[in-house]
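Model it.
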Amino acid sequence: MESLLFEDLHQNRHRLSFCGKIISFKCKRASPTNGSDFSELLFHSLSFKREHNAFLKAADGAAVISRKRSAHVDVVTCKCAVDVQNRVTTPCVLVENKRKEAGSVHYSLLSLSNSNRLEPLIEFKLPYEIREKVSILQGPTVLWSHAGKVFYTSLQIGEVRQIPFQLSHSVFGELPLPKGQTFVLGLQKLSEPCSDNQSTSQTLGCFVESGLMFDGSVVLPHPYICITRCLLVLSADKVEGVLKSAVVAATSTRQLVYFEDGMVKDTCQVPFDQPDDIQVVNTGRNGVLFVMSFHQGHVCAIWKETFQIASHWSGVSSVHVNDFLGCGTDQMLLIFKDEGAPGQPLEHFIITDLCGILYSHGQDSNVGKSSPPPPENYLLTLRALESRLQSGLMVLQELQREVRVKEKVLQQSVQALTDVVSEREMILTQPEQEGLIALWDCDDESKDEVLEDKTQDMPAMSSKPQVDKLWHRIVEDRMVVGVILSTDGSVPVVSVSLSILTETGQSSTPAVIQTQSQVFWLPALSPSSSSSSSSAFMFLEPAAKRTKQHNAGRSNDLNTCRLAVTAVTRLTPLLNSGRVKCRVMLHYVQRQDATALVSNPTPAVLHCGQVILDIHSDFQTKLLKNPKLKSDEVTEDLLSLLVVLDHWVFHIASPDHSLGDIDCWIQKRVGCERIEVNPQYLLLNSSGPSAVMLLHWHQITPFQGELSIHSSQLPMLQFLDSLLAYLPASCSVRSVKGTRGQGTSQIFSLTLEKEVGSLREFVSLLLCGEQEDEGSRRRSTGHEETTESGSVEGLKRCREVWQQDVERSRMRLSPLVDVGRYRKLTQSLFEVQLDGDLAALIETQRTLLS
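Modeled.
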């Protein structure tokens, strides 16, 4: 076999890859022989030989296209397509035959058979020359655009047809279905005029074989039709009549976009313009690559898994994807433009998969190794790597400290052994002085603590929440009804709400009034304490570690939770009578799992009592008269204002000045006083409940803080205007949304605490049997016997005790666990983790919305 000259490859860029070979096509006019003159189509089949590191000619041939002297024959495009009749993939080439005297252009689609013969498939004539984009797809089907219309022909229909509707910005593609379907996507103008904020066109798709139309937005969203240059359908399926697809598309805005079911999932910024084609390289275990070719001879490879640029090249004549080495995976073949003199017997190419395979000839193998410009998120990647490096250094430092401790223990052990052999008195330091902790606790006090901790971890019996007090207030045109509840912290109540039922007479049926409920946490109070402390409305902090309780009654106080549940409604439905009797019903869900969100909810209803409302009576709020008071009535007044007033939160940031004087500026305003029942709130009272304002300033950093305002809209705007006049011009004030969902953070933290506690409890239950056996062995060996370590007998007994401790440690590190108990506890732990995942999802959604 003879080597292929690079000049032959460079003269014609019409090449395709098939079965690990490269096939190039070229039209040529034959020399006159016996007075005849004809034009023919030539092809050369090339295969790569590793031993020669070159492409050598495997086969060649020719076919006569025209015998007219005036005919001009040229190759339009070539591509491998599926032959539907024979169910095989075959190389196809579209040839154009133009004659000056004829008023039409003759086109021929030929295929290369297995016997290396060019066979005609389709022939058709057009009154124009195809100058816009043309594609050869499965069928084989030829599609092209002309004058804003899409035409097609195939071996089955045998004639040229037009898509029955006019499309702009059309895109061609095919679905990888068992019965493959070729489709056309484009924009169709709407017949009816649309408003300014609506599009005047719709995305429409059409299957070429059947002529059926479908919604093109399930493949590409409407905004991407106009900028898409080429696309590739990776997967497609029909589920209940709905098309599900995964598509990658190259746009004119230097992007490769990944779509799933018509939704954007990922994007990659590419460094070149004018994309022409997208190919897929399956490298096997190393992953999948997308190879994009561009109009100016540029090529870019992108990893599918990370959607990041792997490498890129320039000066490429053509790029092909196939198994050129016969190793079972795909490689890329990059044929470069010849920069030397024409006719050099050299091939300029690179074969690589970017995963270890690299064959280069006549081209620098380092081409393409230079990384593209860093993406926009490279800083995030560097920070993540820096964080991992710091974490690794911390682990290394911890291991080094452990090594130093072990070396010191070994030195002391050798010294103690030397002292015993030399009959010298041993001087042993206390473990606390060496920073050591005993592995086993042998004293009775430690056993009592463990037993007490297990007793505290036992879930309490389910009990209904207890109604401590029922109260109500009238604030302008709204009524607030509140209930103070006491519930066991080990069996909490969730999804708490109040409903109000009215009775205007004995014969009338109760009617449910539409209300809005809120829940506030109150501090746990003993029965002897009736006044609210200054920490009201704050969430209870989770116990990070249980300690030994010296007071038996204290544990009950810690497990007691007090809730204030409020419901607010307007007085308009109650104005039909001067005196109204209302029943207050509490709705809640009680679960055995302290932080469960979805496991076995049990709804319950509790009658809290009756409220007799007389709208003619005068309700006076003690809080507005004297904020210095500390009583239950003042707490109820504050809860009523928090429920009725609108709530805004503003984030204030100052890059140049500290914000430490904002709290003082608020307190210096006329009529501003701090509320004693909850000192975190400041009351700004002008005249009447409508002008009441509750303020809370939270200093996050010296230059950042959050201002919470409870008031109506007009006083809030007036206060904010005066605050902006006081702040420096460089300060930024941003409204924080989603303030009503701050309870999700508490749920998430409680869920994490429950998960950690459950894991500790499950492990202790698994090792319970092993610990009991260990305790019995310890008692039987007489471990508490005192020995004289200065004698030889004492040394032997110390050695025996040490060996027993080593054996117990080994058994403790690899205990035998019952399979049934392990499966049961693992399933319970999975349920707790699922609840934690759901709480994390809710918290994440709240954070994103805010």
